[in-house]
Amino acid sequence: MSDLQSFLVQQREIFTANHDVSRTWARNASAWRGGVPMHWMRDWAAPFPIYVQSAKAATLTDVDGHAYDDFCLGDTPSMFGHARPELAAAIAKQASEGVGFMLPTPLANEVGDLLRARFGMAQWQVATTASDANRAVIRWARAITKRDKILIFDGCYHGMVDDCFLALYEGRPANKKGLIGQVVDQTRTTKVIPFNDLPALSQALAEGDVAAVLAEPVMTNCGMIQPIEGFNERLRDLCTQHGTLLILDETHTLSSGSSGYTGAHDLKPDMFVVGKAIAGGIPAAVWGVTSEIAARMDQAQAKIGPGQSGIGTTLSGNALVMAAIKTMLTEVMTEEGYKHMLRGAAYLVAGLRDVIKRYDLPWSVVHVGARAELIFAPQPPKNAEAMRRHLDHDLLEVFHLYLINKGVLIAPFHNMMLISPQTGFDAIDRLVTAVASFSQELNA
C-alpha cells in the first residue's frame, strides 16, 4: 500500500476496533484537560489513549486485555522493568514507617555513599525530577563562575528548564516554537549551537561569558545523535580552558552501564545529573559535584549570605525516595542486569540492521548502551538540523501505530527502543519481525 494516509486510516481502524474499553474510558475523561492527567499521554500515535490495567517486568497489559512487549518503559523511568518486587517491598516497608519528614534518616547516609561509589562525584543532592536538578546545577554554575549564560546543543531536552527551550532556526537561535506563557527571550542568557560542531563550541566558549555547558554525552531527544570521535573529550578540554563548568545530564544515557556513559567512557564532568530511573519511577533525581566544585559552592554561598536559595522543594529527598534509590542501586541496577540489557540491545540492533539490509531500506540504527533508535535516514545524522530533515511525522505516526497494533510499544517520541533486564529475546524477535512486516506493507 503506497498511500501513507490510507495506511494510517487502516491502522486507526484496527486500533479502534480492538480497544472498546480504552475508548470508553477516554470518552469519560472530561475532568482532565485534553482527556489525560498529563498532556504528554496524548502524544502516542493511537487515536485515543491506551488505558493501562497493569505492567510487570517488560510487559504492559491494557484494560482491553491486550499484552504489549514494552520497549518504551515509561520513556525511561521503568528502564529496569515494571513492578520490581525488590522495589515494591522497599516502598511498602518505608510507607509503613512514614514517608516525608523534611529530615534525614540513617538510610540517607547509605544512599549518599552508594551514589559516591557508583558515579564518582564527591557530594550529592536529591531533587524531585531531573528538571529540578538541572535548574539547581545551572543556578550553582552561575553563582560559582559569576557568569550569566549557559550553553546547550540544538535539539536538546533537559526537562522543564526555561533556559533550555531554545533551538536553531535556519542557523539562528530563538525560543522554541509552541512555548506557552514564555515572556523572556532566552537568547539573552543561553547560547545554542549544533552538536558535534567543535569550531562553534570553541568560539562560543572563547567569549568568556558561559557559566556552564549542559549536555547529554549522547543526544537522545531529537532522535539519537552520537558524538563524533573525541567530541566529549574536546568538550571537557574547552570547558577547562575557558573556565566553564561541564554538566552532564545522564537521565537517558544511564542505560550505557552501571555508572552511566560517564563511567563507561571515563568522562570528567564537573556536575552530574540523573533522574527518571534512579528511583525506579518514583519521582526523584540526583545531582552530584566534584570535590573542587563543592568547595567553590561553599565559597560562593558564604559570599551570597543567608536567604532563600531558590533551590530545592519540600518533597525532595524524602524517606520513600531514599528507600527506592537504595534498592535500585543495590538490588536492581546490578552488573548482571546491565549485561542482559547490553546483550539484548546488541541483539536488537543486529536484527534491525539485518532487516534494513535484507529489504534494502533507506534506514539506519543508532544505539548507546541498552537504548536503540531506528532512524528513517540512510546515514545517522550528526546534528539536530540534519535529523529534523528525516523526521517524517506521518511516517512516524503510522509506524508507531502499526507496532501498537502488533502488540509492541516503543517510546512515542521518535523511534527509541529500550531494553530492560527483564526483556526477553523472544520479545526482541517480535519487535524485529514487526518492523520487517511494516516495511513490506508500507511498500506493497
From TrEMBL:
InterPro entries: Aminotrans_3, PyrdxlP-dep_Trfase, PyrdxlP-dep_Trfase_major, PyrdxlP-dep_Trfase_small. Its cofactor is pyridoxal 5'-phosphate. The keyword Cell cycle does not apply. Pfam families: Aminotran_3. GO terms for molecular function: pyridoxal phosphate binding; transaminase activity. Transmembrane segments: none annotated. It comes from the Bacteria. SUPFAM superfamilies: PLP-dependent transferases. Keywords: Pyridoxal phosphate. Belongs to the class-III pyridoxal-phosphate-dependent aminotransferase family. This is Glutamate-1-semialdehyde 2,1-aminomutase. It comes from Asticcacaulis taihuensis.
